[in-house]
Every structure is written in C-alpha cells, then in structure tokens.
C-alpha cells in the first residue's frame, strides 16, 4: 500500500492526541485551571491536527460532511462520528476544568470512552480489509489501541503507568509484524485463485494490461523500502519504546519531553512500515505483491 | 445507503469466456470510449503522449501463461490465456459497505454496483476494499470510477435494440463476452455458466461475484498414439532427385565432410 504522508501523520498524531484525552478524561493528571488548559491544548492540537491532515488525501474534501451519514456499515463514517463526539464531550469537560475548577467526572469518562472508540474505529478501517491480509486480523486494533494509550500515558506524565504500557505497545507492534509476515500466505489467496486457473498448472503473469503504470499500481503495489524493513522495524521499536523507557527512568522533566518526541518518531516509522509493507491482493494480478 | 440489499430482483452481469478471448483489447477501448463520452466524469489520461502515460480504465486485459504439470510424458506446451477484468458486480460487495458517504451503492432492481459521483469524496477506501482492482480514482475528476455495466446503454431506448448491451460485449469480435440476467436460470449467461463450469475469481474473499469466467478448454493432449488415416497419402512421392539439383546433391555428397542424416 502506498504510504500517504497525510494518513501517516493523521494516525500518528491523532492517536497520541486521543490517547492524552483518554487520560485527561479519567482525571490523570487531575489538573485544573491553566495547567489543564495547556494539557487540553496539546491534546486538541494533536487530535484535530491529525484529523485535518487526514482530509488532505481526499479528492473532494469540500464534501467531507457527507461522510457522517453511513455509520450503519462504514467504519470510516463511524470514525468521523466518534471523533467529533469525543472532541465535543471533552471540550465541555475541559471547560469545566479550566474555567470553573470543576471536574464533571461522568462527562470525562464518556469522553475517554469516545476517544478510545475513535482510535478503535480508525484501526477497524484497516482491520476490515480482507484485501490486505496483513491488516485483516486482531493484531491491528491491538497495536493501534495499545500505542494510543501508551502515548497518552507518556504525554499525560503518568510515568508509572506509561512504562508498562510502552512495553505492552512494543509487544503489540512486534506481534503485528510477526503475524503479518505470514498473513498473505495463510490467506490462501494466490495468482491461482485470483485467475481461477490454478487447477490447470502453474500460472504466471505473462503480460500486464498496459506498458505504463496506473492508479492500482501506484496505490496498492508499493514495494519501495521493503528491503530496509527489518532495519526500520528495529529503529521504530527502539525510538518508540526503548529510548522513552530509558529517559523516563531518569525522572527528569526535560528528558521526559525528549521521550515523547522519540516515541512520536518511532510511531511514525512504524506507521510508515504499516502501509509500505502491506500487500494488497490486487498486486497478484500483476504478478507482484 | 451503503448497506447492501439482501436480494436483488435481477442479477445483471457478464460471462467472460477465457477460451475464446483473443486478447485484442477492443473491449478496453470501446469501454473507454463509451464511458468517456457518456455518463459521469470522463475517463481522463495523464501525460498521454509523454514519457510516462497513465489513465483511468474500467476494463483491462491481462495475459497469463499456464504451464501444465509434467504427468510423465513430458510437459505439455504452455498455454496463453487472455484475461479481461472489470467490476464483477459482487452480491456481497465490500466496496459498497466501506463507503462513508453513501456514494457507492448496489441497485435493488438489477444488482448493478454504481457510484454517485456528486457524493463521492474521493477517499479511495472502496478501491482498497475491492480485491479485483475494479475501481480506479480518476486523477482529473478526483472521484471513483468503475464499470457501470453500461447502465446508460442497456436501458436506453434511443439506441437500436441490438446496441442495448454493454459496450465491451457489443464490440467483442470473438464473442468472448456475454451479458444477461443471472437470476433467470434460462438466460444465456446462466446456461453458459452451467454448461461450461463458470467460476468465481478469488472465491475465498467471500464477495460472491455475479460475473462468471468460463475456463479455457484443455487444448493439448498426448497425440503419439493417434492413427492418422491421411498419413499414407501424404508420404513423399519423389524418392530420387533429378535434374540439376539431383546432380548437385550427388556432387556434394562426393566431397568429404558431408553429414550422414538428412536428405
């Protein structure tokens, strides 16, 4: 799959932003007034910034409002509704904390649940794709959600919770890779089933439909960078989990800020791989994967 | 509405005969022509006369080679199969349910899967969900394009009756494409599918495609035991060469270095 920067920025930033909103909704940290204002500003910049970035890959962003209509069947539609609902509820909750020094607890819990649901719906957009076996399994939501809450805990300054959650996120990410590496093979989809000609012998792509490229090849058959995949995986886990853990052990505020930046860089690298390594079955028709 | 209908009154679709398709790409061109000039945004091309041309097509023809296995008598010759591919108008179309705006839908009356281009936000998710590569985002119009089964031909009373079928079917010079209603067991497409073992592409995806592909007939078999009744009549009559060539043949045979075999 083509790793579109807009989608990578969206899932990385908004995942972190909604992660922070989850912790703020649960009263961690139990800040009010100006400190609460700073926390909420960071969370909204990340979450809303990510959502705006995600509209950059749309052909017609001016019609984006229509995307709220099909929640009965579409995970993308559900994601939009959850995101807006979470942002509205958390804004009300934030107003209470910032301006009235009041913690409307129930509102916070609802907002936290909606934030969690937003990231879950994001992950289900990918996990529902039977056409991309690497994504079409439970490791995808497990990875998205565990990274979201680990990043949220890190950003919320909840060091004691963040450390085990970071380890969990790392395990979920590695699990997604280990499972994903054999997903296409296990799916049973090959050029033989794609053409229905497998019973007659060995099928080979002899000639593509055209000499140039096309939308399908640009969007779904992205093979650049796969040779560096293993190195990138190591870099991603080190930046996402190992470096933040070491920095958190120092108990320093400045180094904790560095831990957040390192985590963000690691998640970005992992998300780039999430797309770049994903094989869409349509590639089989072109004798590629 | 992007939830799928539980059943459709008719199931219009295509049968594609892999046995008779000659890979001429006429269906590709007639499709592009009709669908550029008629319903919806035109199928644009980018850099069409330049170094890196590409464009939107709703129908593309692949070619595959099948190497039959060696069953002990030497491997049979490889077979070349031309393979046209367009939207299969699946009964359980994953492209429809993922659409966030309701632009993609499957018609209750005839099962055709269509895109309402004025509702399409160009997110591309439906193309992700299609295992067959049947949907392509038009780089000019920024909306999703797909086969309409020439919905603007098949019901078009301004056209002569023989033209009221999809452009690809109408144009195919080898009759490799057939259009009809799969819900009717006596239709041409249902009979062809039953008689020739029409098959689904990627059945494991659970999409339940309406379009069926007829497998190519097996063309090669072991002929070493065949009796050819014409063989005696076709034996060479002239056993000795005469004239200038006969003299040349003998003269060259005398020279050293001539091979044993051959005449």
Category from helices, strands and their pairing of chain A: mainly alpha
Could you tell me the radius of gyration of chain A in angstroms? Answer: 21 Å
- Mean pLDDT score of chain A: 93
Question: Given the structure, what is the number of helices of chain B?
Answer: 7
Instruction: Give the CATH architecture of chain A.
Output: Up-down Bundle
CATH class of chain A equals Mainly Alpha
Question: Whole-number radius of gyration of chain B?
Answer: 27 Å
Proportion of residues in β-strands of chain A: under 5%
CATH T-level topology of chain A:
Formate dehydrogenase/DMSO reductase fold
Q: In the residues of chain B, how many domains can be counted?
A: 1
Short description:
The complex is a heterodimer of chains A (289) and B (263). With 289 residues, chain A is an all-alpha fold.
List the topology elements:
The complex is a heterodimer of chains A (about 290) and B (about 260).
Chain A: H1 5-25, H2 33-55, H3 75-100, H4 105-127, H5 139-156, H6 159-181, H7 183-187, H8 191-195, E1 202-207, H9 215-220, H10 229-249, H11 253-276, H12 282-285
Chain B: E1 12-17, H1 26-37, E2 45-46, E3 54-55, E4 59-67, E5 79-86, H2 94-97, E6 104-106, E7 113-115, H3 125-129, E8 136-137, E9 144-145, H4 151-154, H5 167-171, E10 177-181, H6 188-196, E11 212-214, H7 243-254
Q: If you had to describe this structure to a student in words, what would you say it looks like?
A:
The complex is a heterodimer of chains A (289) and B (263). Chain A has a single domain (5-285), classed as Formate dehydrogenase/DMSO reductase fold, CATH 1.20.1630. Chain A contains twelve helices and one strand; from the N terminus they run ααααααααβαααα. Chain A has helices at residues 5-25, 33-55, 75-100, 105-127, 139-156, 159-181, 183-187, 191-195, 215-220, 229-249, 253-276, 282-285; one strand spanning 202-207. The mean pLDDT of chain A is 93. Chain B is an alpha+beta fold and 263 residues long. Chain B is built from seven helices and eleven strands. Chain B has helices at residues 26-37, 94-97, 125-129, 151-154, 167-171, 188-196, 243-254; strands at 12-17, 45-46, 54-55, 59-67, 79-86, 104-106, 113-115, 136-137, 144-145, 177-181, 212-214. In chain B, the strands form five sheets. Chain B has a three-stranded mixed β-sheet with strand order 10-1-11. A two-stranded antiparallel ribbon of chain B has the order 2-3. In chain B, strands 4-5 form a two-stranded antiparallel sheet. Chain B is elongated and about 90 Å long. The mean pLDDT of chain B is 90. Chains A and B meet through helix 3, helix 8, strand 1 and helix 9 of A and strand 3, strand 4, strand 5, helix 2 and helix 3 of B.
